[in-house]
Every structure is written in C-alpha cells, then in structure tokens.
Amino acid sequence: MTPIGIDPTTSAVLFVECQNGLLGESSKMKSLAAAAAPVIPNMGRLAQGARSAGVQVVHLTYFPVANNRSSNRRPPLFKRLNDSLSDWTRDHHDTQPIPEIGVGPDDLVLSRNTGLSPTYGTETYKLLRNIGAETIVLAGVSANVAIPVAATEAVDEDFEVIIASDAIAGVPLEHVESMLKHTLSFIATLKTVDQLLEDWGVTA
User: Fold this and answer.
1) Mind listing the pLDDT tens digit for each residue in 122-141?
2) pLDDT tens, 142-193?
C-alpha cells in the first residue's frame, strides 16, 4: 500500500532545467554539468520509475525569446550567461531534456522564457493542481538557486513537496549537502530515489 502523501496517481516529478545546454556536453555551465554527472543516472531511474508507476513527469526548461531580450539582466548569473544563450529556441538541442531522462509520451515539457525561478509567474502549479497533483517531487538543478526557490513556492501553493535528495546537483558538492541539511529539510521532505520508487511500488 502506498503511504498517504505519495500516491503515484496524485504525484508529479518536476525535473528542473535538466536540459542539454546545462547538463549535457554542450553545457554553458561546465562546473554544474560536472557536479551533476554522478547523479544523472539517479535522475534517469527516477524518471523511468515515475512513468512506470503512473506518476506525471514534468520537464521545466528554459530558453529566451524576443531576440534574447526576455531574460532579466539584473542577476549576475544571467549577465554572465545571456550572450551564450542567444541561439536557444524551443527546438534547439540545448533546450531539450537530457537523453538520460528523456521525454516520455505522457510527459509534460513546460518552458519559461525569463526569470531565475523555474516556476514563479508561470502556469506550472495551476496546471498541476488542475490535473490532480497534490505531491511534487523536485529533481534537477540547482541546489544553489532553482531547487530551493521552487520548493518554497510549491509549499506556499499548498503542495506536499519532496526533494529527491540524490537526484539534485549544485556547486560545490559540500554546498549541496549543506543545503539539504540546513535549508531544504526545513521546507520539504527529503527522500532518495530508491525510497521514492519503493513508495510507488516500483522495483529499483
């Protein structure tokens, strides 16, 4: 019996910015891609297990529009990256989910065109609520910014939030461990991929 709160039929896994241009060979953030490499197999297992259990898989990706003018120029991160993203479009290789995770036939790909937050100002939580999601599992990058921001927003939207603790990455490694222990554990429940698959009745 699936524990209350992680019923696969009312759950969704959100893969945050797990796209080729960030985690693949063409990464614009090589240090982040290197940090994520050891946990990418866990991301793939999470995606495959979620699909087999009937959990909704969602990919939150990013690409700019309006001739690369849609991104906010104020954050130092975007100031460093914006010029290198000028050729990104919806169909560009770098904006597609990494092959280790892939895109299943029932997956949702929700792209945004501005902002540091992967969910603020988007329809993500409205959409998830409309399709019956009550529990959100977050995986992907980064533990530095996007994961804690999305977790906080999801909790404030009254979702049960779980962090797939061995399917997130950030820089440096010790910061990820600190964020899990001292920040994310106060916002959400922490579970490993194996624990999630067990909760969903999926053989690891």
Assistant:
1) 999 999 999 999 999 999 99
2) 999 999 999 999 999 999 999 999 999 999 999 999 999 999 999 999 999 9
Tokens 């067990």 correspond to: 198
Locate 66 and state its tokens.
């309006």
User: Quick check: 59 and 52 in contact, CB under 8 A?
Assistant: no
What are the domain boundaries of the chain? 8-199
Report the phi/psi class of residue 166: left, alpha or beta, with left for phi > 0 and alpha for psi in -120 to 50.
alpha
Confidence (pTM): 0.94
Helix and strand numbers, DSSP H then E, in the chain: 9, 6
Structure token digits, residue 136: 């959100």
Under the banding of pLDDT at 50, 70 and 90, the label for residue 68 is: confident
- With 0-12 / 13-18 / 19 or more C-beta atoms within 10 angstroms meaning exposed / middle / buried, residue 95 is buried
CATH 3.40.50.2300 is held by the domain 8-199: no
Label residue 148 exposed, middle or buried (CB < 10 Å: 0-12, 13-18, 19+). Answer: buried
Q: Would you list the DSSP string of 187-199? A: HSEEE-HHHHHHH
Q: Which two tokens stand for residue 108?
A: 């949702």
